[in-house]
User: Which sequence fits this backbone?
C-alpha cells in the first residue's frame, strides 16, 4: 500500500512495462486494466474545493526506493513496499497556499497481498518503523536540518470498504529566526478488493479539517468500490 509521497519525502512507484506474466499469473492485460482503474479512482481537480490548483507529482525514484528499503527492513518484510512489479498511480498534487492533497492507488496482484499490506499498516511496529524511515529521508531531503520527523500517531476514522487505516505524521520545520512550526501529514487508506487506496493531506501549523479529508476519502471510496468488482480478486 502506498504511503505519502508528495510532501516532505516520497515519490511514486512506476509499474513494470514487461509483457510477460509474473509467477502468480499477473500479466500485461491485467496490468493495463489495473492502470486504467487506478486513474479512474484517483482524485481530480474537480473533486477538491474551489481555489485549489493542480501540479504534477514529483518523482524521485532514488529517495522512494531508499524509503521503501528501510521500511521493509524494519518490518522484516523484504518486498512489502516499493514493489516495482505493481501498478501504482498518483493523482496530481493539489495545493492551496501551504496545504496540499494527493491520492494514490496501488494494485496488489492478489487480495491476500493487499490484506497483508493492510495488516502491516495496522501493526504495532508500523509507527516506529515509519518514523525511522521518514527521519532518514527527511535528513536527505533537508540536510541543513530545516525539517525533522517528530511523531507518527494513529487517527480515528470510520471503517471503509475491506479494511482501512489512518496515520498522522508530524514534522517540525525550523525557520531561520529560530522558530519551529509543525507540518501535519494525514495519510488515510483503505482496501477495495486488490486496490490499495490512500489519500495524503498536508498542512502547516494545523491539520487540514477532518470534514474535508473524510469527504475526499468518500469520493475515492465510491469510485474504488464501484470498480473493484470488475478488477477481480485473483
Assistant:
Amino acid at each position: 500500500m502506498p504511503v505519502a509521497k508528495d510532501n516532505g519525502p516520497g515519490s511514486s512507484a512506476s509499474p513494470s512495462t514487461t509483457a510477460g506474466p509474473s509467477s502468480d499469473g499477473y500479466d500485461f492485460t491485467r496490468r493495463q486494466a489495473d492502470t486504467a482503474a487506478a486513474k479512474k479512482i484517483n482524485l481530480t481537480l474537480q473533486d477538491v474545493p474551489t481555489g485549489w490548483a493542480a501540479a504534477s507529482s514529483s518523482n524521485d525514484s532514488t529517495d522512494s526506493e531508499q524509503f521503501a528499503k528501510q521500511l521493509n527492513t524494519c518490518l522484516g518484510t523484504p518486498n512489502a513496499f516499493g514493489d516495482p512489479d505493481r501498478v501504482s498511480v498518483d493523482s496530481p498534487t493539489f495545493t492551496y497556499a501551504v496545504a496540499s492533497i494527493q491520492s494514490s492507488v496501488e494494485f496488489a496482484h492478489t487480495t491476500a497481498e493487499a490484506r497483508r499490506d493492510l495488516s502491516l499498516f495496522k501493526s504495532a511496529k508500523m509507527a516506529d518503523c515509519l518514523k525511522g524511515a521518514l527521519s532518514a529521508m527527511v535528513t536527505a531531503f533537508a540536510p541543513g536540518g530545516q525539517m525533522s520527523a517528530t511523531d507518527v500517531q494513529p487517527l480515528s476514522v470510520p471503517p471503509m470498504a475491506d479494511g482501512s487505516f489512518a496515520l498522522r505524521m508530524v514534522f517540525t520545520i525550523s525557520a531561520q529566526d529560530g522558530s519551529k512550526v509543525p507540518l501535519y501529514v494525514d495519510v488515510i487508506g483503505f482496501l477495495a478488493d486488490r486496490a490499495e487506496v490512500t489519500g495524503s493531506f498536508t498542512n502547516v501549523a494545523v491539520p487540514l479539517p477532518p470534514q474535508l479529508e473524510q469527504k475526499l476519502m468518500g469520493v475515492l471510496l465510491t469510485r474504488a468500490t464501484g470498480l473493484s468488482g470488475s478488477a477481480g480478486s485473483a
Notes: Strands lie at 53-55, 87-90, 93-96, 99-107, 147-154, 164-174, 180-192, 195-204.
